[in-house]
Amino acid sequence: MNLYSYFRALLFRLEPETAHRLTFQLLDLAARTPWCAQAQRQVVEDPVDIMGIRFPNRVGMAAGLDKNGAHIDALHCLGFGFVEVGTVTPRAQPGNPRPRLFRLPDAEALINRMGFNNDGLDSFLAHVLARRSRGVLGLNTGKNFDTPIERAVDDYLIGLRGVHPYADYVTINISSPNTKNLRALQAADQFAPLLSALRKEKEILDRRYERSVPLAIKIAPDLTPEAVADIARVLVEEGMDGVIATNTTTARLGVEGLPFADEMGGLSGRPVREAATRVIETLRAALPAGFPIIGVGGVDSAAAALEKVRAGADLVQVYTGFIYQGPGLIADISRALADERAQSTRV
Ligand SMILES: Cc1cc2nc3c(=O)[nH]c(=O)nc-3n(C[C@H](O)[C@H](O)[C@H](O)COP(=O)(O)O)c2cc1C
Predict the structure, then answer these.
(1) pLDDT by residue (tens digit) across 89-141?
(2) Of 76, 141, 240, 310, which sits with the fewest C-beta atoms within 10 Å of its C-beta?
(3) How many angstroms is it from 236 CA to the middle of ligand 1?
(4) Angle (CA) 160 162 168, round 5°
């Protein structure tokens, strides 16, 4: 048993959102102490250049843990090579009624139907501006629940204009299962026009601020291989810079019969690992060599991270695995990925 497993046992006695708040309060405090440098020393330096950005290591924090961008320093303090915050929507919204987050410890999984609860773009940007850490930062944008899906592009454009000046990269999240019809934006007829509008706006913003900010699209695991291949083609045609695969799944494979398994929402953690890896493989086969893929879904160990990289991911992100395994996971993964790279360059 490591130290984190005792802490987790305490946390798991609390309602999940209470545990989440308490953990951030503690992490915010820890980020101001020498504990931070200590945590970072455990993480292996393994710099890579992806999407024109230098990442100090290849393990990132996935979107959704820090929806308001209010804990960026605390997350960077843990040694993540990059931190993605959001999803932010143009206007503040409360999300779905509670309970909306469920633990399935026997499967090391979570089910959530948070519904993009967040304080809105203005508050988000104020937090981003107030951060002290200069680590790599991804800003993840979405649409308000009450914006009609036909007008989704307006929300994404508002988000892009707002976050562009402060982001190392911007994520367009069209794959949450908890906003009605959102995933329909991945379908061919809607996907290309959305990306085309975003690319045009990005080019205007890149010129205005005299820096190129990469755009990454985050997709779902619940897509057929044909749909993933279609997405890959459009990503290239529309000049996107990266893809994040994947979000949570609406499937319930691997959790049948467990408490909370029938709750509505997106399932994450170990049960989504394989589906996410399959999507990454399909993307890698369909995309030109070197097109950046960020692999996420069920990364809860060095082995799971290596699986994503061998399937074709350039970087990995963690969320649910981090909840179950704690911050030691970052050091474990960074070491394994650095070793793998050292071995493959030796061969
Ligand atoms: C409680 C919770 C909230 C999430 N919120 C977001 C979000 O706001 N935006 C987003 O792009 N992904 C969100 N995600 C998805 C994660 O970023 C990640 O893609 C997914 O959980 C799969 O990774 P994992 O198995 O490591 O958790 C959320 C996941 C969880 C568990």
Answers:
(1) 999 999 999 999 999 999 999 999 999 999 999 999 999 999 999 999 999 99
(2) 310
(3) 25
(4) 70
Check if the beta carbon of residue 42 is closer than 8 Å to that of residue 79.
Answer: yes
Spans in the chain with pLDDT lower than 50 = none
Residue listed under structure tokens 């399932």: 267
CA 142 to ligand 1: nearest atom: 9
Q: Which of 319, 329, 330 to mutate to test the pocket of ligand 1 (most atoms within 8 A of CB)?
A: 319
- 208 alpha carbon – ligand 1 mean position (Å): 32
Cα–Cα distances (Å) from 10 to 6, 13, 14, 258, 321, in that order, read 7, 5, 7, 22, 17
Distance CA 90, CA 92 (A): 7
3-state secondary structure 29-78: HHCCCCHHHHHHHCCCCCCEEECCEEECCCEEECCCCCCCCCCHHHHHHC
Dist. CA 153–CA 259, nearest whole Å: 38
Query: What angle do helix axes 152-163 and 121-130 make, rounded to 10 degrees?
Result: 20
Q: C-alpha angle with apex 296: 72 to 50, nearest 5 degrees?
A: 70
* 147: its two tokens: 């914006």
Residues 6+ apart with CB under 8 A from 235: 195, 217, 243, 287, 291
DSSP code of 253?
Answer: T
Nearest CA to ligand 1 atom 18: 247
